[in-house]
Specification:
Largest sheet: 3 strands, antiparallel
Number of domains: 1
Radius of gyration: 17 Å
Shape: globular
Oligomer: single chain
Order of helices and strands: HHEEHEHHEEH
CATH architecture: Orthogonal Bundle
Length: 147
């Protein structure tokens, strides 16, 4: 294979096979707009209706917000640490850790260790599935509240 062919193949792979972050986020923009707001002063996420989501889904929704905050240059790397989740969501560490484990086990999030601190982010390849779970939970809650 010539170097010209290799470059062409490399460009095709990057152009056609890579997940496109902007496209993935744009697909869910209107739904996310109903769920949260990004605080420009600190890149934190304000959930609009946290009381209707389970603890696990509040964590997942917050992390989805971080992806959007990162795309808007309001969050470093689009990830969140345990301490931020505890502080922002009001979830005790003892409750948070099992939620994070379930989200990792279900493939929604990836974790990175930096020293003794853990950071988490939504896997872009699982964003559709994550949004489906969040929206489904909200629809179920809405249906139950109307009955």
């Amino acid at each position: 294979m010539s170097s010209k062919d290799a470059i062409s193949l490399e460009e095709r792979i990057k152009g056609e096979l890579y997940l496109n972050r902007a496209d993935a986020l744009a697909k869910h923009f209107l739904t996310v707009k109903t769920l949260l707001r990004i605080r420009p002063e600190d890149g934190g996420i304000h959930l609009l209706t946290p009381e209707v989501l389970s603890g696990k889904l509040r964590v997942l929704t917050y992390m989805v917000g971080k992806l959007f905050a990162h795309a808007a240059d309001e969050s470093h790397k689009g990830r969140v640490g345990n301490e931020e989740l505890v502080r922002e969501l009001g979830i005790r560490m003892g409750s948070l850790l099992p939620y994070l484990k379930r989200l990792r086990d279900e493939g929604f999030i990836a974790a990175q260790l930096e020293g003794k601190r853990s950071f988490h982010s939504v896997r872009l390849s699982c964003l559709d599935k994550a949004m489906e779970c969040i929206v489904s939970s909200l629809a179920k809650h809405k249906k139950e509240s109307e009955e």
